[in-house]
Automatic annotation (TrEMBL):
It is found in: Membrane. GO terms for biological process: cell-matrix adhesion. PANTHER family: MESOTHELIN, STEREOCILIN RELATED. InterPro entries: Mesothelin (IPR010335), Stereocilin-rel (IPR026664). Belongs to the mesothelin family. Its main location: membrane. Pfam families: Mesothelin (PF06060). GO terms for cellular component: cell surface; membrane. Keywords: Cell adhesion, Glycoprotein, Membrane, Signal. This is MSLN protein.
């Protein structure tokens, strides 16, 4: 339906008010289509808020979106800063474990919105949390607020991490 909607909306060219359309629809446009109305950063900020699971995780379209986002944001190597993590939004769910490890705690908040993780992502999340080198601090210093912020990551946490969290 979304793909069909994009075809209808863009039938007479790319509309100038793309920002007023649902983010999920933008998943079916390319950054170059959007370029006429805004920057690629703006495009990926919208994509980061979209319901990413509309596209299957292993689909070429979803993989291409992530590659284009990394290129647009000029992310050097595997390290993503907080500002870029916010722009990427749900796209961080597709970043490999090496990105998660290299970025420290910068991705945790966005990762907590992901529906599922691959084994290397889970391992990287546990490693980053165990390091305690995040804005949330080590698990022994966590509060109910912290658990609420990271609630989507709780299933990934191992017993040794869970034991450290104060009751």
């Amino acid at each position: 339906q979304l793909s069909c909607l994009v075809k209808m909306v863009t039938l007479n060219g790319i509309p100038k008010d793309l920002d007023s359309y649902p983010e999920d629809m933008l998943l079916f446009l390319s950054p170059s289509d959007y370029a006429a109305t805004g920057s690629c950063r703006q495009y990926f900020a919208h994509i980061g808020k979209a319901n990413l699971p509309v596209l299957p995780r292993e689909s070429s379209q979803r993989k291409q979106l992530l590659l284009e986002a990394l290129e647009c944001l000029k992310i050097p190597g595997k390290q993503v800063n907080k500002e870029n993590a916010e722009i990427l939004g749900r796209l961080v769910c597709d970043l490999g474990g090496e990105y998660i490890t290299s970025s420290g705690g910068n991705l945790l908040k966005q990762l907590s919105q992901c529906e599922s993780f691959l084994p290397d992502q889970e391992e990287a999340i546990r490693s980053v949390i165990n390091s305690g080198n995040t804005t949330f601090g080590p698990p022994v210093a966590w509060s109910a607020f912290t658990l609420d912020e990271l609630s989507g990551l709780i299933p990934v946490l191992c017993h040794s991490i869970l034991q450290k969290i104060p009751k």
